[in-house]
Write a structure and sequence with these properties.
This protein has 255 residues and is of the alpha/beta class. The chain has a single domain, classed as Vaccinia Virus protein VP39 (Rossmann fold, 3-Layer(aba) Sandwich). The protein is built from nine helices and nine strands. The strands form two sheets. Strands 5-4-3-6-7-9-8 form a seven-stranded mixed beta sheet, with helices on both faces. Strand 4, helix 5 and strand 5 form a beta-alpha-beta unit. Helix 7 packs antiparallel against helix 8. The longest helix is centred in the last third of the chain and has 19 residues. It is globular.
């Protein structure tokens, strides 16, 4: 399986769900079913998908966010809360932990209660493509390993810019396109041969892990995503590759 795999072309109302083409209005339901299934073992899933390196990537990402008590955070697709908690641990101001998936948000809420963070977090069950928040209402918007699962990525980026105050920043950590040729065959072997089998054994759900591996390959590459940031009106767009491009951090400012 090649890193350059693309989905077959389809009708205008078709969209990728991994390597399958589905009706655009089906994708959210299918993605929700995946995350309903994996929510109890989401952190284990990330460990399996990244061999534990996602924890290092998230620490780097939190540093990029530059937490400050004078700024607040909207954490889109915040899931089980890792980025929100890291923001608060490093002195960040109030946070909104948002996720379209109620099961994921429930795990995040339970973890926040256990860590004593509940008073500093607002929990929001919302679609990142259509946020129920006012224009220019937050200082920083983050999204960690969630953008690739969204049906309309351009809409998500546009919404992030809309809710940012001038001088605010949208930061995305996501699996991306491997930049080191020698890594590609190893990465493909892990993603498509090993990971689904681990999903079957550990989480009793091979299909969801197969989708997650495929969804990484369908994510726009670094330069394409940077172009989408610029198209949405974000400025000073920067890209930082992690682990040879297995993941990347994209940042853009509302100027």
């Amino acid at each position: 399986m090649s890193d350059n795999t693309t989905a077959p072309s389809g009708a205008a109302d078709d969209i990728d769900f991994g390597y399958r083409r589905v009706q655009r209005d089906e994708k959210k339901t299918l993605v929700r079913e995946v995350f309903d299934s994996v929510a109890p073992k989401y952190d284990l899933m990330n460990d399996l998908m990244s061999l534990g390196i996602h924890r290092v990537w998230k620490r780097i990402f939190i540093n990029v966010l530059s937490p400050s008590p004078r700024r607040d955070l909207l954490d889109l697709a915040g899931g089980t809360g890792d980025i929100t908690f890291g923001w608060l641990d490093h002195g960040g101001g109030p946070a909104i932990l948002s996720d379209i998936n109620a099961a994921m948000l429930s795990v995040g809420r339970d973890r926040a209660m256990a860590r004593g963070f509940a008073d500093n977090i607002t929990f929001l069950n919302a679609d990142a493509e259509k946020l129920p928040l006012p224009d220019r209402s937050v200082d920083t918007v983050s999204m960690s390993f969630g953008l690739r699962n969204c049906t309309d990525k351009d809409a998500v980026i546009a919404e992030a810019r809309r809710v940012l105050r001038p001088g605010g920043r949208f930061c995305v950590l996501e699996f991306s396109r491997v930049q080191v040729a020698a890594l590609s065959p190893i990465y493909d072997l892990w993603s498509f041969k090993v990971l689904p089998k681990l999903g079957r054994v550990v989480a009793k759900d091979e299909d969801s892990y197969q989708y997650l591996a495929e969804s990484i390959r369908m994510m726009p590459d670094q330069e394409t995503l940077a172009g989408m940031f610029r198209k949405a009106g974000l400025g000073r767009v920067q890209v930082r590759n992690l682990s040879g491009g297995i993941a990347a951090i994209h940042t853009g400012w509302r100027l």
